[in-house]
Amino acid sequence: xxxxxxxxxxxxxxxxxxxxxxxxxxxxxxxxxxxxxxxxxxxxxxxxxxxxxxxxxxxxxxxxxxxxxxxxxxxxxxxxxxxxxxxxxxxxxxxxxxxxxxxxxxxxxxxxxxxxxxxxxxxxxxxxxxxxxxxxxxxxxxxxxxxxxxxxxxxxxxxxxxxxxxxxxxxxxxxxxxxxx
Length: 181
Hints:
Elements lengths: L12 H11 L5 H18 L2 H11 L5 H11 L4 H15 L7 H25 L6 H17 L2 H12 L18
Helix pairs in contact: 1-2, 1-7, 2-7, 3-4, 3-5, 3-8, 5-6, 6-7, 6-8
C-alpha cells in the first residue's frame, strides 16, 4: 500500500503535508494556502532567515557593503535559503534599489522562489504516468491557487519583526550549564 505521491517528494515534512492537503479534492484553496504558508514559515525559521535579515539590515547602506555581504555569505554557507536571500539582496543592490525596503523586497523574492521551487518539485513528482489524470489536474490547480493566495507580505513582516527581537537573557541554573543534548 502506498502513502501517495506526496510522500515520495524529496521535501521537508511541512511541504509533504502541503502536497497531501493540495492532493485532497475536498481541500479548499484557503486550506492549501495555509499549509503552504506554514511550510514557508518553518523554512524561514530553519533557514535562520531572521538572523540573516538582522545582519543584512545592519550593513545595507554601509560603505563596504560588498565586503560585508561576502562575510555573511561565508557565515551562512550551506544554508540554501539564507544564500538565496543574500543573492536577492545583491540583485536588488545591482538593480539600483535605493529604498529602505531592499532586504524586505529580497526576502519576499526569496519566499516566492522557495514556494515556486517546491511546487515545481511536487508537480514533477506527480507527473508520473497514472490512470487518474483528473486527480493530477486538481492537484496542480490546488498548488497554483495556493501560491496565488499566499500573503507573502505577511510572512515577510513576520520574519522582519522576529529579526528585531533582542536576545533575552535567560536565567539558568547551574545544572543547565554545560549540558548539551
